[in-house]
Amino acid sequence: MRRTACLVALATLLALAACGEKKEEAKVPEGPLEVLGLKTVAAFSAIADPAERSAALFGEMAKVIAHPRCLNCHPRGDTPTQGESMRPHEPPVARGANGHGPPGMMCSTCHGATNVAFAGSPGSIPGHPHWGLAPLEMAWAGVPAAEICAQIKDPSRNGGRTLEALVEHMGKDSLVGWGWEPGEGRAPAPGDQATFGALVAAWVETGAHCPAP
Ligand code: HEC
Ligand code: HEC
Question: Ligand 2 mean position to 21 CA, how many Å?
Answer without folding.
Answer: 30
